[in-house]
């Protein structure tokens, strides 16, 4: 055990910036090719070890690509099963399914996202009016706590836009239970800094640590666990970490909001002049679906800045910009690609291109969906329906994401078979 260091963690400017992931499908495919051999039993055995910045070889680091769907969940799962078989790749596949589970869960409890956004505004008001909370928040965000491991994670987050899953769990637990900071401010920090920042995975994971997802069950970071799974890189003192982690259920005395039915998608009409709207929720525009449409114009809607009322990291905005450019690359050969920032822009561009419908990939609950919902009255007033493509993957999995993960896990063999990823149920 060591005492907390007195030396502050180097700040971002003290260190050489690492090469950040590039937001293109090709870069994602290269990452997939390189990691596929590790998706079997090696992943199951070693995935929990956080070896530190630049050393994350036991995990795929594919999350920014999956988040923007430069890679699809389906192709990543297919690669794992093809390389190792369903049994040896089970753990990796399950982790990818966690992402789909959180997506489907939030689709059916959108109020949880709305409450998060309102609660965040309230938390920010508290920070503005309470100097003690403000000072604690600044110290945490700038990596100037007395906890060297926490400061190191902040530095890694700021410089790479990535943290290992275990570090995210420890970080969130320490943020809430040791530093006593409001969980939403931590979740917001992650959204602003993570390249893979995602309304569903992030909000639900923070809630899970806080005991709000699996109601009453929290995640408590312990000195022993941190030392073990950082291979002794860190040796926290027990006394530096909160000894209890009481669930924050008191914040939500009424429990979870009721389930709402999955949204019905308005499918695009063929032969109708169409404005195609590229969004960062799904940057693989399906060539087959595109070929059935009469595309008269193309636009892109950047949304990284919508993740938070606070400033979103430049590396997050850059990755999204690259991803949207990549998504539109083929279409840009035949169309000018306009960038949309307001609902008025969207109407203008649609009208300029003689479009009678706007088509975009399904937008899940989160900032982009909020923007599209807020644009709807303006679009309706101009007779411009919004139509969406939905992936079979989401359509098949989401109906089972109504309660805990176990419900989806139990169905996984059937789901994988239905999706054509295994031959028979339980196929090995
Ligand atoms: C507090 C907290 C906040 C998080 N915020 C986000 C977030 O904003 N965006 C995000 O994509 N993930 C989030 N996660 C989940 C998880 O930490 C990351 O998906 C994972 O660390 C990404 O690294 P990887 O690609 O190397 O993962 P790998 O271990 O290689 O896993 C492969 C893929 O499976 C998915 N996945 C793996 N673990 C999880 C998980 N626990 N939950 C959901 N999906 C998972 C990811 O898409 C990942 O790319 C969060 C977890 C915690 C505890």
TrEMBL record:
InterPro entries: Crypto/Photolyase_FAD-like_sf, Cryptochr/Photolyase_FAD-bd, Cryptochrome/DNA_photolyase_1
Signal peptide: none
Example of a GO MF term: deoxyribodipyrimidine photo-lyase activity
Superkingdom of source: Bacteria
Keyword tRNA processing: no
This protein's UniProt keywords: FAD, Flavoprotein, Lyase
Positions of region (Disordered): 1-22
Domain Cryptochrome/DNA photolyase FAD-binding per the UniProt entry, residue ranges: 92-220
Biased composition (Polar residues): 1-14
Cofactor note: Binds 1 FAD per subunit.
Gene3D superfamilies assigned to the protein according to its UniProt record, in alphabetical order: 1.25.40.80, DNA Cyclobutane Dipyrimidine Photolyase, subunit A, domain 3 (1.10.579.10)
Binding site for FAD: 43, 92, 95-102, 196-198
Enzyme Commission numbers on file: 4.1.99.3
Cofactors that this protein relies on: FAD
Keyword S-adenosyl-L-methionine recorded: no
A biological process term (GO) from this entry: response to light stimulus
Protein name in UniProt: Deoxyribodipyrimidine photo-lyase
Gene: phrB
